[in-house]
Amino acid sequence: MKFIGQDFYLNGEKTFLRGVNRHQEYPYIGYALSDNANYRDAKKIKEAGFDYVRLSHYPQSKSFMDACDELGIVTIDAILGWQYFCEEEQFQNHVFQTAKDLIRRDRNHASVIAWEVSLNESWMPEPFIDKLTKIAHLEYPGNQSFTAGWQSYGYDIYLQARQHRLNHYDSTIKKPYNVSEYGDWEYYAMNAGLNQDSWSGLLQKERSSRQLRTAGEIALLQQATNIQEAHNDNYNTAAFADGYWVMYDYNRGYAKDLEASGLMDIFRIPKPSYYFYQSQRDFDDPNGKPMVYIANKWKKNSPLNVRVFSNCDEVELFLNGKSLGIQKPDTNRISKNLKHPPFTFKLKSFKKGKLEAKGYVDHKLKCVDVKLTPEKAAKINIDIDNDYEGLQVSDSDIFFINASVVDKNNTTISDFKGKAKFNVSGKGELIGENLVAFEAGVASIILKTNTKLQNVEISASSVELIKLQSNDNEE
Questions:
Q1: Domain 2-279: which CATH number of 3.40.50.1970, 3.50.50.60, 3.20.20.80, 3.20.20.190
Q2: CA distance 367 to 291
Q3: Where are the domains of the chain?
Q4: 2-279 and 379-474: same fold?
Q5: Phi, psi for 402 (deg, rounded to 5)
Q6: pLDDT in tens for each of the 475 residues of the chain?
Q7: How many C-beta neighbours within 10 Å does residue 408 have?
């Protein structure tokens, strides 16, 4: 890894690092993840189309760092600190010690590109910065020792959030530049000076990227639009990397509600934006594959502008077996810099049934996605988030258990209202509230058990589903 001017080179090849920020947090258990759970988090980041993660804003688990080394995810390793600086000697000495401790712990990790020995989003005096950067270069000497910070002074890499850049970007700064955070705050606060003409009819909440999975299609598509606009705009700068805020919804401690700008919810269930980023990885990339994803639900009240994310050359859309045409990617102002812009199909009317997207590369069919109009709720499907093989065997591991209300075609009923009661038999322990509300058709809980999931059975029931089915039978 090296820089030539403002450009980043990885294995001798000029590279733009598409990245994301990550908080190490699960529901109910906070930061107390198993080693395998940290691996699963890293794997999900890689599968989403990212090659870089900013570790916000504290040293994260060694097992997560190990996973990044293994999976080829570049990291920026950060010390503690957020929006606060103090002149007191005791405070500053504590920061200096955390910088030493961080680098001594992680300096043998190949994934670390830079040390964020900087207080996040904080003004710091120059002598304080000088001491931190000196510590970093002493603890990790050599020509591949890079520091990163929130002020252009002193650091090897200049970190700047997009909401700050929009009013304060200085193109005369010629050091490597990283858009460390983007896509959330500028749409939440609406004070960053964006040209958002197409947002003029929306309310504050509707404009935001902070959308829970329960927010509905329009809101989740708005999140995806915000992300697309912001990521597209980052390419107008000299940045060698950007990091979306944030990969997973998370608790903040100082507020009761979740921070919901995640590409996945706190239970690691994807939102449509997840697939936007997945589409930005080339289909022939060693870590990629041809993909196509219909972002709409295809219900009666679904938007008639159907958005499709794909890394293919062309996409053909079908409704109930009838082709609605083959299209190239969009060419609007928020798409022009993207590797793979979305495809937007403008339908005239809704017809119940099967919406199917086919992705083509060089006119050859490479991938398919299908959305079916939901029918009556029929059953509950149980899914254990355990897709990854080869993880270390442990007597104590944690898994997300998802119970989905589905119809006869296994289409999730996203507007189902009710609660799930989970039941476990064998050597397993459920962690979390149990009755669990269905959110967009899915109720989730944590299972603590052995890694191999031996001798454990999970089921779920819903009083509301039983009543609904009983009413349907009476009719």
A1: 3.20.20.80
A2: 6
A3: 2-279, 292-372, 379-474
A4: no
A5: -115, 125
A6: 899 999 999 999 999 999 999 999 999 999 999 999 999 999 999 999 999 999 999 999 999 999 999 999 999 999 999 899 999 999 999 999 999 999 999 999 999 999 999 999 999 999 999 999 999 999 999 878 899 999 999 999 999 999 888 777 788 889 999 999 999 999 988 765 555 566 677 888 889 999 999 999 999 999 999 999 999 999 999 999 999 999 999 998 778 889 999 999 999 999 999 999 999 999 999 999 999 999 999 999 999 999 999 999 999 999 999 999 999 999 999 999 999 999 999 999 999 999 999 999 999 999 999 999 999 999 999 999 987 777 888 888 999 999 999 999 999 999 999 999 999 998 899 999 999 999 999 999 999 998 888 889 999 999 999 999 887 766 6
A7: 10
- CATH topology classification for 379-474: Immunoglobulin-like (2.60.40)
Q: How far from the centroid of its chain's Cα atoms is residue 23's Cα?
A: 10
Q: In the structure encoding, which two tokens stand for residue 466, read together?
A: 């039983």
What whole-number distance in Å separates Cα of residue 57 and Cα of residue 60?
Answer: 9
Q: What are residue 309's DSSP bridge partners? A: 293
Q: Evaluate the CA torsion angle 210, 214, 216, 217 in order and state its sign.
A: positive
Tokens describing residue 233: 């705009």
φ, ψ of residue 368 in degrees (nearest 5) = -140, 145
Q: What is the C-alpha separation between 368 and 235, in angstroms, rounded?
A: 30
Give the Cβ contact number of residue 363 at 10 Å: 8
Considering the domain 292-372, what is its CATH architecture?
A: Sandwich (2.60)
- Ranges of beta strands (E only) in 311-434 are 314-319, 322-327, 343-346, 354-361, 364-372, 379-384, 397-406, 419-426, 429-431
Q: Which of these, 175, 153, 151, lies nearest to 161 by C-alpha position?
A: 151
Helices 89-106, 62-71: axis angle to 10 degrees equals 50
Nearest to 100 by CA among 146, 135, 75: 135
pTM value > 0.70: yes
C-beta separation of 96 from 103 below 8 A? no
Residues 277, 279: Cα–Cα separation, whole Å: 5
Q: Whose structure tokens read 């705009």? A: 233
Give the number of C-alpha atoms closer than 13 A to the C-alpha of residue 225, restricted to the C-beta side: 19
Cα three-residue angle 271-354-373, rounded to 5 degrees: 60
Closest CA to 372 of 407, 343, 403, 424: 407
The alpha carbon of residue 36 and the mean position of all alpha carbons in its chain are separated, in whole angstroms, by: 19
